[in-house]
Amino acid sequence: MNRVDGKVAIVTGGARGLGAASAKRLAEGGAQVVLTDLREDLGAQTAAEINDAGGRAIFLTQDSSSEEQWIEVVAKTKEHFGGVDILLNNAGIGPGGRIDKMELKDWRHVMGVNVEGVFLGMKHCIPPMRERASQWEGGGSIINIFSIMGFIGSPGMTAYCTSKGAVRLASKSAALECAKLGFNIRVNSIHPGYMETEGLQSAMRAMARTGGEEAEEAARQEMINDTPIGRLGKPRDIANGVLFLASDDSSFITGTELVIDGGALAQ
Questions:
Q1: Are residues 73 and 106 in the same domain?
Q2: Which residue, 52, 72, 86, 89, is the most exposed by fewest CB within 10 angstroms?
Q3: Do 182 and 210 belong to one domain?
């Protein structure tokens, strides 16, 4: 039985990595998927792969920090698939830097994508979700993907950690608001640990350029050592969590965090 059969999902940052894996997993579960991203070529390719596999997906170019583009994405989603039932706020950026060296414009850019983009997604998807929420036992589902850095700090990552912590509490507040107002919309967040993604690979390559291959391997091994289960996470690990929170199997779950980190935060 398809767990999200007939539902319509918007997935931001869906061109690659966790977003692409989650979009594919939702499509496998029966959802019709709208992928958005700034990477047009990769986004179109991911949508084509879903369609080739028998799913239904379209790609839309979107800067998730733009309110105008959010309005357009929601309108096109309703036009193409008839409504919105699932929102996966996955788009995010993670530039690091010392707090005393960081430019204000760079700080604001992180907050614009990682925090304001999530706010705008929830703001503009809640109204169409309410229109269809009564069709599903679990109602509408908003899932905000962030990081274990929403729980802990990290040197050189102040902006990133701040944005992740902000969205963690924004998710809880939105969940309570939707519940108290009787919207039948659930809001939860997923916090991945160290993941085997393109972003991590890029960071590893950067380390190799500055410190050589030994530095790259040492950093990778340190991440594995910090993960009790003994390996880095795979995008499919997160995608399975997304499918669960999007489905009616999680109809009594709202305002909580699903930590998928191989045990890193349990230490």
A1: yes
A2: 52
A3: no
Is the pTM here over 0.85, yes or no? yes
In this prediction, residues 40-64 reach a mean pLDDT of 98
One domain, residues 227 and 162: no
SS3 track for the chain: CCCCCCCEEEEECCCCHHHHHHHHHHHHCCCEEEEEECCHHHHHHHHHHHHHCCCEEEEEECCCCCHHHHHHHHHHHHHHHCCCCEEEECCCCCCCCCCCCCCHHHHHHHHHHHHHHHHHHHHHHHHHHHHHHHHCCCCEEEEEECCHHHCCCCCCCHHHHHHHHHHHHHHHHHHHHHHHCCCCEEEEEEEECCECCHHHHHHHHHHHHHHHHHHHHHHHHHHHHCCCCCCCECHHHHHHHHHHHHCHHHCCCCCCEEEECCCHHHC
Domain of 178 in residue numbering reads as 8-193+234-256
Tell me the per-residue pLDDT of 17-26, one tens digit each, with 9 for 90 and over.
Answer: 999 999 999 9
Number of domains composing the chain? 2
Domain co-membership, 162 together with 205: no
